[in-house]
Each structure stands twice: as structure tokens, then as C-alpha cells.
Specification:
Number of helices: 6
Radius of gyration: 16 Å
Number of strands: 6
Helix content: 40-55%
Order of helices and strands: EHEHEEEHEHHH
Distance between the termini: 24 Å
Length: about 170
């Protein structure tokens, strides 16, 4: 579900909701739920300060419902769909557990479209493309990926998925 709680930037929700469904399908998360909330720069700046102790707005923040979501197995991500990071050895063992956990609430993603628009312009992307990149990035965080500590694992997975979805 995508909720728009900001007014600074006009955002078409239906295409983003469609993209979110594609991401969930690709990652085998059709039955899992999550919320993407579009917020103002002021609101995301407050969240950034409160939860990350960093001043100012950022483009995306993720709030996993659990510290370690069941799809994360000792640093390896296992999916029932195409494997974004090339890890297959634990897939079969994890499928049954994943099916049991599929209805789980993954968490919340906050995105600031105003900041995203600035980053999109800086990176030569459209706002629509930037918002899709941020949704994908946020979902990976909800699944336990952490680009600040995983020695490039999240970046590799995100690059492969961006390519699969036709994102810059």
C-alpha cells in the first residue's frame, strides 16, 4: 500500500503501486504486506534525526517490522522467485518457511518526494524512475539488507534488480 501524506510534489500513486506489486512478485513476497508512505521533507528530516541521529532530510528510510526478517538467512537472501544475488544453496530448505511467513508484515518505508526530485535531477533521472528506485531500495532494507555493513551485497542485489526492472 502507498499512502501520500505530502503536498509538495504531485505523485501518481497507481503506477507506483503497480511497481511495488512487481517488486513483491519478483521477490516472492506476493502475500507479504508493507506500507510506503510519501512524506514531506520536514517529516523525513524529523525521522532521520530521531532514528538515525542525522540532521536534514533524506530520500528514503525503512523501518522493518522485525530486526531479521525470515528471508535473511545468515547474511544470504533466499527468494522463491528469481534469485537476485545468485544464492541458491539454501533456497529449497527455505521455501516452506518462506511460505509460512509470506503473510507477514514486512514494515514501513518513508519516501520524501521533494528530496527524491532533487536527487533525480542531480542523477539525470525522472522523478517516476527515482521513486521506483527508492521503493526497491526500501524493500531490500525491509528484507534485512544493509548497504552500510554488508560489503556490497545489497548494492549487487539492487543493481541486478534495477536491470531486471529497467531502472537506471
Amino acid at each position: 500500500m502507498i499512502v501520500n501524506r505530502q503536498r509538495a510534489v504531485l505523485v501518481a500513486r497507481p503506477p507506483l503501486e503497480s511497481f511495488l506489486r512487481r517488486v513483491k512478485n519478483e521477490l516472492g513476497l506476493e502475500e507479504a504486506s508493507l506500507t510506503v508512505c510519501l512524506v514531506s521533507d520536514a517529516e523525513i528530516a524529523r525521522m532521520n534525526e530521531t532514528f538515525r541521529k542525522k540532521k536534514g532530510p533524506t530520500d528514503v528510510l525503512s523501518f522493518p517490522a522485525e530486526k531479521k526478517w525470515p528471508l535473511a538467512a545468515r547474511g544470504k537472501r533466499v527468494t522463491s522467485g528469481p534469485d537476485p544475488v545468485g544464492v541458491n544453496e539454501q533456497r529449497e530448505k527455505s521455501k516452506n518457511k518462506q511460505r509460512r511467513e509470506a503473510g507477514k508484515y514486512l514494515g514501513d518505508i518513508a519516501i520524501a518526494p521533494d528530496t527524491a526530485r532533487r536527487y533525480a535531477k542531480k542523477n539525470g533521472r525522472t522523478l517516476a524512475s527515482e521513486l521506483r528506485v527508492l521503493i526497491l531500495h526500501g524493500v531490500l532494507h525491509l528484507l534485512g539488507y544493509d548497504h552500510e555493513t554488508d560489503r556490497g551485497e545489497m548494492d549487487r542485489a539492487e543493481r541486478k534488480l534495477r536491470k531486471r526492472f529497467g531502472l537506471a
